[in-house]
Amino acid sequence: MTLSKPVDKKTLVHGALAALCFGLILWIVRQEVNLLLMLGVFNLVWIVKWCQSMPDTTVKDPVNYVTFNNGHIQFGSASIPIHKVTRVALETIREHCYFSLPYNPTTPGNPPGFVFPASKVAEFKHYLQAELGDITFIH
Question: Looking at the whole model, is its pTM more than 0.90?
């Protein structure tokens, strides 16, 4: 499961342009362009942009974050009809729990989800069972 947004073309173009500009400056100053250095700069720019685009998706209280209104489960920007939700993924790793709806993607290949403290798993699972009824938990 992935929590970050996919890298868009705009970010890649900015990284490529930054690497090309840096390479051009090096060529003008030193009359020497090192392809490995240009790739390193491109990767550095790309990694910085990627890290900046990743939102902090840790939710402190999942019970208050996930709401059920008018036959829809809602959290963040996701709103999915309850009758379509049959499986919920909950995976606990160390002090975090990852929640997602892998069979209900809002965009292709990107299921809605979020991260919350592992100490809240039992309470959140009970809340989901009470609201959604007979659902399957994928661990």
Answer: no
